[in-house]
Amino acid sequence: HINMYYFCFILACDLVIFTIKSWKLHVLVVQRGVEPYHWMRCLPWGFVSENEDCETCAHRVLYKETSLYCRYLQLSSVQSQPHRDPRWRNVSIVYYTIISSENITPQEGNNQLWAMFMPLDILPQLWFDHEHIIKNSFEQLKKDLQWSDTIRYFLPKHFPLALLKEVCQIIYRRSFEKRNFNKFIKYRFKIIKTKYKERWVN
After folding, report:
1. Pairing between strand 112-119 and 24-32?
2. Strand pairing category for 90-98 and 10-21
């Protein structure tokens, strides 16, 4: 016979939404308009409903809180520290997504005062552990770019190769020598050259 102690916890999803604006990496931040924690700034988040999985919840929260859709959603981390939420035991599944700056006009949801993209380097103070979540997701993003074509979601459908290089330099915060960069692209990404610009092979 094994004595076991069971306790209840709340399952939530947090979203880190990256884009590039004015040649800087930005993250979407919202400001709560309802209690508790009225006026606090945070990431878009929400509780997982009884009849949905975590990824479905993440898509729902993204649209409900910001009126945005995403084509790409990546699991970033699981935050389960016992006291991360002072109200109750809260375990959060964290996803990050990338949205091209071509078509982004975030709108505040029903529980938000505003939603806007803010530069990663000068974010305001955020509630709970959301600053830690953003830092972890940024590191995960850089790792994912090493082996996948995730970076494509920062770009329009057709783009000059120079723009791809600029995006890489913004994310990695370093310059790339042209010859080495072209070699890096050649063996990792499926890109074809059109008459004036390059585009990804889907």
Report:
1. antiparallel
2. parallel
Two structure tokens written together for 70: 């995403």
Q: Are 79 and 91 in contact (CB under 8 A)?
A: yes
- Alpha helices by DSSP H, listed for 39-160, are 54-66, 130-145
The Cα 130–Cα 3 span in angstroms is 36
| Type of residue found at 105 | T
User: Taking the C-alpha atoms of 175, 132, 18 and 86 in order, what is their torsion angle to the nearest 10 degrees?
Assistant: -170
Give the span between the Cα atoms of 186 and 193, in whole angstroms: 12
Confidence grade of residue 202 (pLDDT, cut at 50, 70, 90): very low
Q: Strand locations in the chain, DSSP E? A: 10-21, 24-32, 41-42, 45-47, 74-79, 90-98, 112-119, 158-159, 191-193, 198-200
- For 156-174, the pLDDT digits (tens) are 877 778 888 899 899 989 8
Contact 32, 117 (CB under 8 A): no
C-alpha 55/C-alpha 95 separation (Å) is: 8
Instruction: Note the pLDDT tens digit of each residue in 22-76.
Output: 999 999 999 877 676 777 899 999 999 989 999 999 999 888 888 888 888 999 9
The whole-model pTM stands at 0.86
Q: Which of 114, 124, 126, 199 is nearest to 163 (CA)?
A: 199
